[in-house]
Each structure stands twice: as structure tokens, then as C-alpha cells.
Amino acid sequence: MTVQEFLALRARYHAAIDRVLPTYAAQSAPGPEVVAAAHQIKDLTPRVLETPLLPFYRAVGADFFAWIDQTAQP
């Protein structure tokens, strides 16, 4: 992956997080846009975060990542 591709993926990742955070914080029912953003987060996380740090991200953000996993289920 080129640097430009990585930066584009990271921008998509951050935009998806911005879309889900209000719903996550309010613990309200996610609409279709939030579900789509949760899918993006789930798909992009291993591509944009440092692989050796993924267990630590998941440990520190356990509630958030559990919510993402649940929201992104088919």
C-alpha cells in the first residue's frame, strides 16, 4: 500500500468514527448510516492501526469495539 492509499484509508476510518461516536455515546439505536460506518471501522481497523497495538486498542476501548462488532453484524 502506498502512503497516499494509507492516508486515504485513515481519513475514511476517522470519518467513520466521527459518524458513529454520537450514537455510541448516546447508546441509541443505530440507523443505516451508522451501521455502514461501523462496518467501515471494523474493516479498516486492521489496515490503519498498528498490528502489534491492536490488542491494546481493543483492551482500552473494549466497550467501543464490542459495540462496533455488534453494530456491524449482518
Task: Describe what this molecule looks like in 3D.
The chain has 4 helices and no strands. The chain has helices spanning 3-26, 32-48, 54-60, 62-71.
Task: Compile the SSE list and pairings.
Layout: H1 3-26, H2 32-48, H3 54-60, H4 62-71
Helix pairs in contact: 1-2, 2-4, 3-4
Q: Runs with pLDDT <50, length 5+?
A: none
Order of helices and strands: HHHH
Shape: globular
Structural class: mainly alpha
What is the number of beta strands? 0
Radius of gyration: 12 Å
What's this, in brief?
The chain has 74 residues and is mainly alpha-helical. The protein has four helices and no strands.
Comma- or semicolon-separated keywords:
single chain; 74 residues; mainly alpha
